[in-house]
């Protein structure tokens, strides 16, 4: 099975929000990426609505429920505030990815500290599961993080891949990739699915997927939006899919 590509639309919404205008359209670009072959879409509605708004979440849910994109996945990321959990209970996306972000944080930059938040997460995971979505937890590349994530009842982890992107750009990816691969194997051995995301790009995705086994899904937003400025969004999506298709399928 090849890795699924979920396109994060936050940067499309951020560009729209710079002006009091309805474009670029978040739902319009959702259609572009899905028509180009992406398996799903990801959004991260933050409390200040700096990019994705609650109205975007509802509009995307309606788009995907309309029947034109059967099987397309809707992934919603966020810190599990009461407002966020109420939102995902209402929308019922396919997947909810819980991230340990402070409200004003610019972007996700670390995985969960399970020694501090493991017991906090467990009832929240159960609550979200009761509404229907599976839960993925944002984690650092550490075997113990996979073990702790499994103890919460989550179904997947999302590997925080910025350390890999930094190491790859510096020409020293091997030690970091070893940790990512070990974490992925540990997660799979515990029955967890493995996702990955953050700073993955056309320049580094292929090497990552070739070395880290069993990655079910990658979520890519900033890089694919930047690359789309040069080549167009649909060609950018297709370029990622070509990289994914070139990696041998997971058993």
Task: Give the helices and strands, then pairings.
Layout: E1 4-8, H1 10-16, H2 26-35, E2 40-43, H3 54-65, E3 73-78, H4 82-91, E4 95-98, H5 114-131, E5 134-139, H6 143-151, E6 156-160, H7 162-170, H8 174-189, E7 193-197, H9 205-211, E8 215-220, H10 222-231, H11 233-246
Parallel strand pairs: 1-2, 1-8, 2-3, 3-4, 4-5, 5-6, 6-7, 7-8
Helix pairs in contact: 4-5, 5-6, 6-8, 7-8, 10-11
Question: Characteristics of this structure?
Answer:
single chain; eight-stranded parallel beta barrel; TIM Barrel; 251 residues; 11 helices; 8 strands; alpha/beta
Describe the structure.
The termini are close together. The longest helix is centred in the middle third of the chain and has 18 residues, at 114-131. Strand 5 (134-139), helix 6 and strand 6 form a beta-alpha-beta unit. This protein has one domain: Alpha-Beta Barrel (TIM Barrel). It has an 8-stranded parallel β-barrel with strand order 1-2-3-4-5-6-7-8, surrounded by 7 helices. 49% of the residues lie in helices and 16% in strands. It has 11 helices and 8 strands. It has 251 residues and is α/β, with parallel strands linked by helices. The mean pLDDT is 95.
